[in-house]
Amino acid sequence: MSVTIADLQAFADAWNRHDIEALMRHMTADCVFEASAGADVHGTRYVGREAVRAGFSEVWKTFPDARWIAPRHFVCGERGASEWTFIGTRSDGARVEVNGCDLFTFRDGKIAIKNSFRKTRVPQTTN
Asked: Dihedral, CA atoms, 97, 51, 28, 20, nearest 10 degrees?
């Protein structure tokens, strides 16, 4: 079983629907999510299904209107990537719009590692 570009698009669509169950169906049992932000060199690392579920859900708590637009995907064997523009508004009203990407490692037709990167930009305030 191989992950395809269509699988990565379905994963991206689930992020925009804020559909945690659909996201987790794409992940292996021992999955890892390395978030863009965090105190460690790799960002905040979530290991295992429950931790990854919590990490994914935290994104929507921080940015209730989060969405990823104009995704572009590629797959090459056991690796893949998605490029996107993230748009969201924090609870304090600050709007974030930045480019980013996810680097993936696949195993058995699912995502084993999702390593997320995004540009750092001063949030824009809304009037």
From this structure: -50
pLDDT digits (tens, 9 = 90+) for 28-39: 999 999 988 766
What are the Cα distances from residue 33, in Å, to 9, 36, 123, 126? 18, 10, 24, 31
| Overall pTM surpassing 0.85 (yes/no) | yes
Structural domain boundaries enclosing 69? 5-125
pLDDT digits (tens, 9 = 90+) for 100-116: 999 999 999 999 999 99
Instruction: Report how many domains make up the chain.
Output: 1
Q: Are 100 and 125 in contact (CB under 8 A)?
A: no
Chain centroid, CA 65 distance in Å: 14
Question: CB-hemisphere CA count at 13 Å for 8?
Answer: 28
What's the DSSP call for residue 78? T
Neighbouring C-beta atoms of residue 79, cutoff 10 Å: 13
Q: What is the CATH number of the domain that holds 101?
A: 3.10.450.50
